[in-house]
Write a structure and sequence with these properties.
It contains five helices and ten strands. The protein has 230 residues and is an alpha+beta fold. A hairpin with a 4-residue loop joins strand 3 (64-70) and strand 4 (75-82). The radius of gyration is 17 Å and the shape is globular. Residues 6-26 have low confidence and may be disordered.
């Protein structure tokens, strides 16, 4: 069963058009934490995380936990949804008192954290079983062009999501600025290739935003056994 983490101002099952036309849409933020660990240590990091997670989940739910399979290897990606920054700060202050995060310092090379705000058409954040492989795409755009990117996506995203679901689409609120993140689940790499080829053949995807693009990154990530998104 899929569990919806309800966003204020967004009705369950609302289409992108419904969300765009709604006059009120105060949306949930997502903290995306990316940790690069030393080779051959990813399983140890996941084991420690899994052991400590039940107590941490009493404070706020985990959205997803992945490790990269294609792209930059040995990366661990966490998704933590919050109602707002105030809740995140409160939860983090209480988490320290229960010994969170788990001590993985001997395995960590570098860490990156960004706070993501959903695009107007992003679906409500849901957890559940959507696919075995998650494509995580991250772009950097020229300063001040995110509103143009949003407008370019709006006419196309609903038709694209009918081909395969999207976990969410966000832009950075805090952290490296002008970043655009979208996550797509697939049953396997073959399904991903088929859907993308069909979308291009139909000339309805991707949105035309190349003139503002500075950098593109992509990875295929696998959910951990305890990941709510799986």
């Amino acid at each position: 069963m899929n569990a919806q983490i309800q966003m204020p101002g967004c009705k369950p099952g609302a289409t992108p058009a419904d969300q765009k036309n709604s006059g009120e849409r105060e949306s949930m933020i997502v903290e995306m934490r990316t940790t690069l660990v030393k080779p051959m240590t990813q399983k140890k990091v996941e084991e420690r995380f899994a052991q400590a997670l039940p107590e941490r989940q009493k404070l706020s739910p985990l959205g997803g936990f992945f490790h990269t399979d294609v792209g930059t290897l040995n990366q661990i990606i966490e998704l933590w949804p919050y109602e707002n920054m105030a809740q995140r700060e409160d939860v983090q202050a209480r988490a320290v008192k229960i010994g969170w995060p788990p001590d993985n310092r001997e395995f960590v090379i570098e860490q990156d954290t960004k706070i993501l705000k959903p695009a107007p058409f992003s679906p409500p954040f849901k957890t559940g079983k959507f696919g075995n492989v998650y494509e995580i795409r991250q772009y950097i755009y020229q300063s001040g062009t995110i509103p143009k990117v949003i407008e370019a996506w709006i006419p196309l995203i609903e038709a694209r999501m009918k081909m395969s679901p999207m976990v969410g689409c966000w832009y950075t609120e805090i952290g490296p600025v002008n970043q655009w993140v979208h996550i797509w689940p697939f049953q396997d790499a073959a399904e991903r290739q088929r859907v993308r080829a069909e979308a291009v053949e139909r000339k309805m995807w991707p949105p035309v935003t190349a003139e503002w693009l500075l950098r593109m990154e992509n990875c295929l990530a696998l959910p951990a056994s305890f990941s709510p998104l799986r």
